[in-house]
Amino acid sequence: MKCSPNYTASFRGNLVYRDAMMRKIGVILLMLLMLAVPSWGSSSQSSNNTLPKGMIVNEAVETRFGNVAVIGREELGACGADTILIHGQEISEDYWAGLWFYNRGNRPNPDDLKKERVFSFADRDVLFFGVQRNCGGSNPGPDRLYFLILRPDGSADVVGGKDFYSADNAILKPRLVGDNIVIDLGYEQGKKKTATLQGDEVRIEYQTVGRIPMREEDCKFLYENIILRDCLNPYKIGCENIGDDSSWSIAVQSTYRLLSQHPGFDAAAFSDMCAKTCQAKQAVPYDEFKERACSL
Q1: pLDDT > 90: what percent of the chain?
Q2: How far apart are CA 260 and CA 240, in angstroms?
Q3: Using one digit for the tens of pLDDT, what is the confidence trace for 184-234?
Q4: What is the distance between the alpha carbons of residues 296 and 286, in angstroms, rounded to a whole number?
Q5: How far is the C-alpha of 42 from the C-alpha of 31, rounded, in Å?
Q6: pTM of the predicted model, to two decimals?
Q7: Are residues 223 and 187 in the same domain?
């Protein structure tokens, strides 16, 4: 039996703020709709007849407690993926775009098995997903991250929080630790950042670490693309404003903000050498730069 498109058009989960660190979308799924669950195929074409006009299935995942699909507007491609569909019910927020489910290890790969995206516990199945910021834009920022929790009674929750993201765009590898899901979120402002799903709440922890040398290639990127370019030849700004990264290209700004999260990066030393390069109209030597700015 096919699910009527009217179900998807008539229902949206309401957003409920649990506290400053958490957000949760509570969705009570009607058990009678279990009889009308669509059989999501691997292609968008196979499910188009169950969706509102102009919508496609971007991806689908099978769980023990129901099939889950990501749907969106066809003309927007991947950035149009903005809604989770479960038993004909929609879960979404106005700013969602470019939504996808992560595998156990990284972003989805078409060759991976669907079951690799599902964490199964005695009382729930859990999916980990991300939503792109400024999807398709030149300076997107880190993905917003969430867990989708599915239960045997047909209920579902989306849990996340304002700090649930990776500031340095780390490769996310969720892992099971007892009854919890733990994700290494990389570094933020020089500290190690970790997210843990305990029950239906996400806990974010920061751990102080010592100075750790940056990768040589990352240090060279900063030197070659900022020191030798924007610091040496500032564009329409004086040396007193050289630390303002808004004068850099969007690509350089984005990469700098990622790399500057590393505990081996010294922002004060970087700014000092950028200013000296500008004033002297001669770049500081790379050996000095990598020792002071990159802990190499």
Answers
A1: 44
A2: 21
A3: 999 999 999 999 999 989 999 999 999 999 999 999 999 999 999 989 887
A4: 11
A5: 25
A6: 0.77
A7: no
Integer CA distances (angstroms), 78 to 100, 133, 216, in order: 9, 13, 34
Report the C-alpha gap between 198 and 191 in whole angstroms: 22
Q: Is the pLDDT of residue 33 over 60?
A: no
162 and 253 together in one domain: no
* 102: CB partners within 8 A, 6+ apart: 108, 117, 128, 129, 130, 172, 174
Q: Are residues 81 and 189 in the same domain?
A: yes
Q: What percent of the chain has pLDDT over 70?
A: 73
Same domain, 189 and 249: no
CA–CA separation, 36 vs 1, rounded Å?
A: 6
Note down the domain range covering 262.
216-294
Query: What burial class does residue 120 get, using C-beta atoms within 10 Å of its C-beta: 0-12 exposed, 13-18 middle, 19+ buried?
Result: middle
Q: What is the widest separation between alpha-carbon atoms in the chain?
A: 75
Domain count, the chain: 2
Specify whether 72 is located in the same domain as 195: yes
Do 185 and 222 fall into the same domain? no
Mark which of 176, 208, 240 sits at the end of a domain: 208
